[in-house]
């Protein structure tokens, strides 16, 4: 399965900054017809609106709110590709007093948010023979103690992404699971990661993965180290048909 961005309509959550903003820019540079900028604060996309004019449409969407996501999906029935980029990261360890609260928030956004997006857009993506891109993380396959709860939430979202591939893939929807290492964003800095890779490595990687029909994308230098060790397991377990 291959999906070309040119002349397609995209919906990108968390589109106002960081990786999301870079995805918007890469999609339009590769010929996307229109990109919905799905954000909680509709005032936060003015820079992108000024830069790209009527090629972008800001739309209110909060992945923590099922009604908000459903309203956005009802407005964006022309969408070909949905990128669920919005996410949160908290720094906490497994024995910290705040780990329960931090994990609950991360699960609501990173896991339940994915489910809300997938359920709201599934019919549209099937009808349009589109694609769903989920931003996961290398932390979905390797826990780091100071972001223990984040890693747990991303492990869960990666598992659900696999389930969505099994559900929607046979119906003609391409699924891409993106697993970056530390990226130069506010979120990465808040977690104490320095010298992160560029957001462009992720956004351009997504365009390439869609075109090549890849399920797993490890876009940056650190992530590719994970890919080298993980690929055999992925080929033989994750991507294999072991239903019988």
Automatic annotation (TrEMBL):
Gene3D superfamilies: NAD(P)-binding Rossmann-like Domain. Keywords: Oxidoreductase. One of its GO terms (molecular function) is oxidoreductase activity. PROSITE patterns: ADH_SHORT. Residues 8-173 form the Ketoreductase domain. It comes from the Bacteria. Belongs to the short-chain dehydrogenases/reductases (SDR) family. This is SDR family oxidoreductase. It comes from Ferrimonas lipolytica.
């Amino acid at each position: 399965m291959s999906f070309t961005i040119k002349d397609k309509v995209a919906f990108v959550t968390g589109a106002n900054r960081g990786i999301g903003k870079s995805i918007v820019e890469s999609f339009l540079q590769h010929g996307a017809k229109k990109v919905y900028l799905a954000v909680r604060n509709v005032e936060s996309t003015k820079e992108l609106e000024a830069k790209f004019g009527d090629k972008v449409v800001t739309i209110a969407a909060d992945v923590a709110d099922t009604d908000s996501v459903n309203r956005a999906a009802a407005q964006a029935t022309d969408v070909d590709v949905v990128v669920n980029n919005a996410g949160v990261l908290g720094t906490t360890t497994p024995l910290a007093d705040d780990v329960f609260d931090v994990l609950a928030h991360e699960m609501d956004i990173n896991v339940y948010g994915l489910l809300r997006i997938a359920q709201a857009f599934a019919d549209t993506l099937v009808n349009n023979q589109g694609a769903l891109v989920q931003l996961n993380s290398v932390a979905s396959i390797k826990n780091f103690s100071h972001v223990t709860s984040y890693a747990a939430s991303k492990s869960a979202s990666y598992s659900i992404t696999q389930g969505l591939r099994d559900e929607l893939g046979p119906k003609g929807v391409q699924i891409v699971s993106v697993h970056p290492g530390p990226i130069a964003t506010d979120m990465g800095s808040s977690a104490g990661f320095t010298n992160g890779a560029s957001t462009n490595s992720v956004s351009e990687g997504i365009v390439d993965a869609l075109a090549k029909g890849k399920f797993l994308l490890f876009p940056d230098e650190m992530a590719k180290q994970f890919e080298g060790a993980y690929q055999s397991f992925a080929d033989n377990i994750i991507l294999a048909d072991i239903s019988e």
